[in-house]
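Anyone opening a protein record will find just a pair of labelled lines. A complete record is shown below as an example:
=====
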Amino acid sequence: MALTTSLLLDTAILLTIIIFLLYKFYTRNNNFFKKRAVKHIPPTPFLGNFVEVLFLNKHSAVWIKDLYDKFGDVPYFGVYIFDVPYLVIKSPEIIKNIVVKDFQHFVDRTMASARHDAVQTNMMFFQKGEEWKATRSKMSPVFTSGKLKAMCPMLVANSFRLVEYIKSRHQKIDLEDMSSKYVAEGIFRVFFGMEAHLMDETNKEFAELLIKTQHPSLKIAISIFCYLYQHRFVDWFKLTFGDPKLRSYCVEAFREALKARENSTFRVNDLIDIINDLKKTKEFKDTFEFE
């Protein structure tokens, strides 16, 4: 049904209404900190205080550090990322209460939880509330001080491989590439119980996938951004966190490592051995399912 006799005028009225409604929605929290007498910078409509980061003028870590310095000697201050208010804590005493004394009230992370993704749904990094607590209680035996100490020799050996890698280079070294390989080698050795073969450059497939994480496509970058800052879009568009190919590669490597070590007498006390031990307990079986 037309509002006027002019299509152009009808379109202009409709667009004005849509823009007004969007404006009201994205500015609904703009007085959140003002009402609570919390120091903050007045937000820009739609973008909050996130303009410099959004337009790639400043890294998010530098942005929050600059705000930290700007507010001086206050126990906390407020920032807006788009339409969402965030309280940034500066006081060591308050931080201690949050992470220790009152931690039961602050277990949820700000990362989006993707209910449509079976892999991410079962990862502690994405879980919230009671699900996170249940998973944490089951996985805690994996990360005792004794088991973590047993993993140290693997990381030390990985460091020696890094030294040899640097010595073998007779030209300039790409530090970003080298660091990524070093971290990935350590993760694969400790968590998957296998060599990634990145520093000896024999695992071309994994190396190529790793390079993509350093320079993600626009689609993956937007997906990660939504997981961090625009949670509503994660489920709307069924987004996945990171490169699906890299995740599939790691999941398959993990499953293969579990199966290979399950009936083996060979032990290195890495995460694979620990999880295989836990799989034999009823409590662990009731919580986790391995295909």
Remarks:
- The chain has two domains: 28-106, 137-287.
- Residues 137-287 form one domain.
- The longest strand covers residues 76-81.
- The beta strands are 76-81, 84-89.
